[in-house]
Amino acid sequence: MTEAQPTISTHVLDTEAGAPAVGVHVSLYKLGEDGRPIRLTQALTDADGRIRDLLERPMSPGDYRLEFALAGRTAAGDDDGRFFRRVSVDLRVADVSRSYHVPLLLAPFSMTTYRGT
Asked: What gap in Å lies between CA 96 and CA 80, rounded to an integer?
């Protein structure tokens, strides 16, 4: 049995609806030495609000950015009235032997993220 390759994943929850945020567009960037983002991949959250593997390649140390496109993601459906339109979270990967999970909890006028397991 082969050991799973470390990855970067996310889980987006809509706390207003009390449900996973389905269909949120998430992009993963690697930040270059000059700080410029280089897009590695993009995906939509699944029926559980998850993207289990955003990296899809061997992980290298450095700074990464997760960008969540939130416009149209409200409990009412495709209402474009959400206050937060886009959220970017920059993170540093030092240990490439472990996975990094970055959940995002959304509410109408607030959001929370943390380093998950």
From this structure: 38
Indicate the number of domains in the chain.
1
Q: What is the chain's Cα-based Rg? A: 14
Contact (CB, 8 A) for 82 and 71 = yes
Please write the tens of the pLDDT for every residue from 46-97: 999 999 999 988 899 999 999 999 876 544 455 567 788 899 999 999 999 9
CA 16 to chain centre: 19
Cβ–Cβ under 8 Å, residues 51 and 84: no
Whole-prediction pTM value? 0.87
Domain of residue 61: give its range.
8-113
13 class by beta-carbon count within 10 Å (0-12 exposed, 13-18 middle, 19+ buried): buried
